[in-house]
């Protein structure tokens, strides 16, 4: 069974507004590192955010880890979101908090309100956070405030925070768009390596086609809310890219 199955996904932000996603179908398997590419406004971020209902679909079905996402009540949705680690374009860190506290915030869904208020996390959580910070190369920065870090370092904090959830799926929403090319490649290699090691599939909205081709085993191409390509990375041809980006203004 697929980790994620999407059928006839449609989204409008207002009742009379334009349709952002127009009947999208795809499956994500347990060993996939799947990239979504396409021009700005194609619907990539909207699709990513529908998976954990940060955006409410207008129609269609999303089945994640065997659960009908659209049918979940608020409590069950919170439970499902524990299993989905999300890495954001703008990092979504709390600037005034330390690197360690930002990473530990990935365990808030598993910690009582009183404990989280006073930052009383179990010893095993602290040990795990230290391990992930070491793996992303930030073990020397644990007490720094998040706003003292570079963009690449901030994104590494975001990766460690997502891993603290012990996710069964990673959602990556433009994880490299705020980074320079060298750091972008390093960040993608880091995410891919850890995802493969932990056996966690990933769905990645990415603007850089070359990075998608280098690090992802499958690619979906969107144009104006319509799926134009879905296949193994090795099968993506220049003609497919021309069709996907045909409407982009250069």
TrEMBL record:
| Record-linked InterPro entries | AAA+_ATPase, ABC_transporter-like_ATP-bd, ABC_transporter-like_CS, ABC_transpr_PhnC, MetN_ABC_transporter-like, P-loop_NTPase
Identify the Pfam families for this entry. ABC_tran
Cellular component GO terms, alphabetical = membrane
Q: What is its EC number?
A: 3.6.3.27
Q: Does the keyword Isomerase apply?
A: no
Q: Could you confirm whether the keyword ATP-binding appears in this record?
A: yes
Q: Where is the ABC transporter domain?
A: 6-249
Q: Where is the signal peptide?
A: none
> According to the UniProt record, what class of enzyme is this?
hydrolase
PROSITE patterns with a match to the protein in the record: ABC_TRANSPORTER_1, ABC_TRANSPORTER_2
Enumerate the UniProt keywords alphabetically: ATP-binding, Cell inner membrane, Cell membrane, Hydrolase, Membrane, Nucleotide-binding, Translocase, Transport
SMART domains given in the database record: AAA
Molecular functions per Gene Ontology: ABC-type phosphonate transporter activity; ATP binding; ATP hydrolysis activity
Q: Which SUPFAM superfamilies match?
A: P-loop containing nucleoside triphosphate hydrolases (SSF52540)
Q: Which domain of life is it from?
A: Bacteria
NCBIfam families per record: ABC_phnC
Descriptive protein name: Phosphate-import ATP-binding protein PhnC
Q: Which organism is it from?
A: Roseovarius aestuarii
Q: Which gene encodes it?
A: phnC_2
